[in-house]
Structure formats: structure tokens, C-alpha cells
Amino acid sequence: QVQLVESGGGLVQAGGSLRLSCAASGSIFRINVMGWYRQAPGKQRELVASITSGGVTNYADSVKGRFTISRDGAKNTVYLQMSSLEPEDTAVYYCNVIISTYAYWGQGTQVTVSS
After folding, report:
1. Residue 12 confidence (pLDDT)
2. Which residues contact 10 (CB under 8 A, 6 or more apart)?
3. Torsions phi, psi of 75, nearest 5?
4. What are residue 88's phi and psi, to 5 degrees?
5. Residue 92: strand pairing partners
6. Phi, psi of 108 (to 5 degrees)
7. Other CB atoms closer than 10 Å to residue 110's CB: what's the count?
8. Over its length of 115 residues, how does the chain's per-residue pLDDT go in tens digits?
9. Cα separation of 73 and 34, whole Å?
């Protein structure tokens, strides 16, 4: 069993910043990829950013230059630093962890950006 605990969501004004955290625990052998997805009302879940065990990052075009993903391997924790937030960033953000070939999801944390 693998558990993911997310934190850091909330309400922020446009132009503000938030930092999301996701800590993985349980039967973890080796985490291959950690990432964040988001789902806005009426839209499909989309990849926001991901980072491999080797530190290779990938970002959605809409967040490049504004969001930064990082990870602490010793703590099995992934972070998403979000800056210059826009109302369009409003969504439920989900942590995603890939261990071997299996994907695990967090419960989601709400991010609301007011204009």
C-alpha cells in the first residue's frame, strides 16, 4: 500500500503564489516519476508538471515559467511552487506517483485563484 498526502492548496488572488506538497509513504521500493495533475470543473484532468527520479522535469505549456516542480528523494516528497497565479489555474490539483509501472493518486487539493 502507498499513501499520498497532499497539502498547500487554498484561495489566493491573481498574481499570488502557493506551494503544494505531496508526501508518499508505505510500500515504496523506488519512485520513478512524481507529478501534479489538475482538473477544473467540466474539463479533463491534465498534466501540470512531472519530475523523474533523475531530476528531469516536464511542464504543461500553460505553466512554463510560472510553476516549478521539485522533489526530495529522502522524504519521498514532491513540491509544486506556483507563482503568478491566474484565475485559469483554478482547479483541484492531484499528486501522482509512479512506482514500477503502477500509478498512485492523492486525494486532491483545491486551488482557487480569484481575479
Report:
1. 98
2. 18, 110, 111, 112
3. -105, 0
4. -70, -15
5. 39, 110
6. 95, 145
7. 11
8. 899 999 999 999 999 999 999 999 998 878 889 999 999 999 999 999 999 999 999 999 999 999 999 999 999 999 999 999 999 999 999 999 999 889 999 999 999 999 9
9. 10
Structure-block grid coordinates of residue 76: 519521498
DSSP state of 43: S
Query: In the numeric block, which cell numbers belong to residue 85?
Result: 497565479
What single letter denotes the amino acid at residue 41? Answer: P
Structure confidence at residue 110 (pLDDT)? 97
Cα-only R_g, the chain: 13
**Cα atoms in the 13 Å half-sphere on the side-chain side of 107:** 8
Q: Compute CA 77 distance to the chain's CA centroid, rounded to the nearest angstrom.
A: 10
